[in-house]
Amino acid sequence: MMSPRPISEDRGGSPHFRQTPLQIIHVIGNFLRIWSVYSMYRYLSQTGASVTLFIFCCLVPSSILFLLLQKPWKGRALSNQQVVPSVINGVITALYFILWGKGLKSCGPVRAILAEYSGAVLGVLSAVLYGRRGLVWKKVGGLIAMLASFYFLSQGWAMASLSPIYILVLDAEVQTEHVLGMKDMVIPIFAGILSALRRVIARRVSLKNQLKRRLHAITIASATCFLFPVAMWDLIIGSSSSSVELPFSAWAFLSTTLFGVLLIFFIDNIAEERLHMVFSSPRHLMVAGGCIIVMEIVYKMDFSLPGFVICSLLLGFGIYEATSLERTRKDSLQNPDQSNGMLGDELQMSSLPT
To answer: Which residue ranges does UniProt annotate as crossing the membrane (predicted)?
Structure first.
């Protein structure tokens, strides 16, 4: 008599097959988020609007929606040990949004999006402070590869007008006005480090997904409150210095609010909890890279595919080495919290202070 076990296994399917819909959702969510980034960049570059004021106008409805969806005042009361770090994390989040927005406006979407992955340097810091010598050198090598990738990006390798292949083949002149230099990349790189830091703090405060969502609502609301005086100051200075009214782009605001702040939070949670994919990982970079290529072509940007691929490969290799852990030990322990990623395991192993 045939055992029913093979039938149940066939019905259940392989784990990879069951994760396929989640992977599709992850790709679509990241595509929409990157689309909102390009919409935001076009609006800021064409109108010259204040970055802080734009982000504040996007965070106000986002914080209201987060609070209405998560209702942190209901359910089990939150302790001060959870609320206070979330409020502090709101300050870091507000600073991240300001720096990243300014980096987007000055450096362009490709450099700003790839610079978000600079948070992997926190893994290097953890290894230098608490890691073994062999692991330190591996992570330092990853850091060097990341710095090389950011240097090539700052020199315009991802732009057709500045790509070495474009210049050698067509014998074109270098347009030095598009060359930024590493000092101009400091702002988006520092924003990427702050982004990784706020993710680490959120994981340390709460290990449960539902509690993390409630605390994230408090974090976004706190970031909105801290941005309020800065945004009002920009509004006052801007209105006094210029009487020209800036055009309003509903799509730029809606896409940034819905896709860039709201949707991407839930997408990242799905990726971490179900797909075991963290933000600062080569897999996430591969998804973002594909979305960037599509948007660069759609928006008809100054884009060099070979130069972008070279920079992305260097960055992916650097992230892989910089975030490398003792994988054999992690696999043997089968830690369910391994999806916390980049620094989650390192913080548990080395207790890096946050």
So the answer is: 47-69, 81-100, 112-131, 143-167, 179-197, 217-236, 248-271, 283-299, 305-323
Nearest in space to 223 (alpha carbons), one of 115, 50, 92, 321: 92
Does 339 map to a domain?
Answer: yes
> Do residues 196 and 280 lie in contact, with contact meaning Cβ atoms separated by under 8 Å?
yes
Report pLDDT for 349: 36
In the predicted model, is pLDDT for residue 350 greater than 50?
A: no
Which residues have C-beta within 8 Å of that of residue 293, sequence separation ≥ 6? 303, 305, 308
Beta strands, E only, 24-72: none
Query: What distance in Å separates the CA atoms of residue 82 and residue 207, rounded to the nearest whole number?
Result: 11
| Band of residue 98 on the pLDDT scale cut at 50, 70, 90 | very high
Answer yes or no: is 177 within a domain.
yes
Judge whether 326 and 262 are in contact, CB under 8 Å.
Answer: no
Which residues are within 8 A (CB) of 59 and not within 5 positions of it... i.e. 6 or more apart?
A: 97, 220, 223, 224, 227, 261
CB neighbours of 175 closer than 8 A, spacing ≥ 6?
Answer: 161, 162
- Cα–Cα distance measured from residue 160 to residue 166, given in angstroms and rounded to the nearest whole number: 6
pTM of the entire structure?
0.83
Task: Give pLDDT tens digits for 332-345.
Answer: 444 444 434 444 43
Asked if residue 17 is part of any domain, the answer here is: no
Six-digit token string for 179: 């060359």
Mean pLDDT of 142-166: 88
Burial class of 14 by CB neighbour count within 10 A (0 to 12, 13 to 18, 19+): exposed
- 165 found inside a domain: yes
120 C-beta neighbours (distance < 10 Å), count: 29
pLDDT of residue 115: 95
pLDDT tens sequence across 163-221: 777 665 555 555 544 567 778 899 999 999 999 999 989 888 876 667 889 999 999 99
Sequence-ordered strand ranges (E) for 166-290: none
Mean pLDDT of 106-119: 94
Q: What are φ and ψ of residue 13, in 5° steps?
A: 80, 170
If 0-12 CB within 10 Å is exposed, 13-18 middle and 19+ buried, where does residue 342 land?
buried
Return the biggest CA–CA distance within the chain: 86
Q: Domain span at residue 342?
A: 25-350
